[in-house]
Amino acid sequence: MMAARAPDRVALTALSLKDLRNYTALDLAFAAALIVLTGPNGAGKTNLLEAISLLTPGRGLRRATFEEIVRNGSAAGWAVAATVRRNGEETRLGTGLIAGGPGEARTRRVRINSAPAPSADALLDYLRVLWLTPAMDGLFAGPAGERRRFLDRLVLTIDSGHARRARDFERLLTQRNRIIEESGDAGWLDAVEAELAAHAIAVALARAETVALLSARMEREAGDAGAFPAGRISVVGDFERLLIGQSAAAAELRYRGLLAEGRAADRAAGRTLEGPHRSDLQVMLAAKDTPAARSSTGEQKALLIGLVLAHAELVSEMTGLRPILLLDEVAAHLDPTRRAALFERLAALGSQAFLTGTDRVFFADLPSDSAHYRVSNGAVVRAD
After folding, report:
1. What does the pLDDT look like over 321-337, one tens digit per residue?
2. What is 1-128+321-384's CATH number, 1.10.10.10, 3.40.50.300, 3.30.70.890, 3.30.559.10?
3. Which region, left, alpha or beta, applies to residue 302 given φ > 0 means left and ψ of -120 to 50 means alpha?
4. Whole-model pTM?
């Protein structure tokens, strides 16, 4: 039997920024797999990670509007360019906020090897980017909407078509809500709801498949005594119960019926009350069989790191691309044992990873071939 082909290593070899956050202009070259960025708070470490996160669909790791990313005082837009190497072959990627024609608003554009790309979704053909930031520390106890966004990002990095399905679902949902409020035209609603139901089922099934694969991997690779405890994850909600024991076609018809039956209630509420936009990602700490939201801060942090690392391994397996990891201020909040375990997992994963911190001491146990850069006031210098 032929052995499965190992995932391709994908790495940034060059990164250029212009008028992004506190960077007027910056050009960097990378050769290492593990890259450390240190410097005081406010120096621009997270801004660098944000720039890399913009080389994928969406609004990046901060979810900022594209106008917010423009450097203060700049009359132009921002730009990010990178060279990505995959198995020795290099591709030039670029994205930025670019002015359109006279009187037109600035819009995000994407270029691949200097040619315009139809959308940011095309970037997924060349790299997958995952991140973990301090803002995600409250994920398990925070609003369900934040967990849904996190879940959809997990799905997107495995299934490149998920972004389009999710956007189309949200567009149709908005359209249905507007029709109900303005006219209530039954024929128009029938047509929109038929399309909405098909997209709703597709979104829900993609989420369920990713969660099942990820949960199985977490339980298999992280034992009770591991540095990063095993978690059991699932998508929960009334809509998910609708899918149990039914084919996709049957679930779609049932949801169309619920949408039609619920028009009066939805009009009174001012929104659609049933659907995957109301679902939630449930995470349990397997060893204690308790919700992650009720676990200690340290357990939640370790569980989240374990989830992201397991997802990185799943992305490698499912897409054939080793993802690039952006880990913002992660090491400083781990005890020495878990910090060493993190570095060991990163080395074994084989992905390129960018880690930030205020002090280099937190990265003393990284492999000797790691690279260190010092960030200060929008300037970045090699500090090995």
Report:
1. 999 999 999 998 899 99
2. 3.40.50.300
3. alpha
4. 0.94
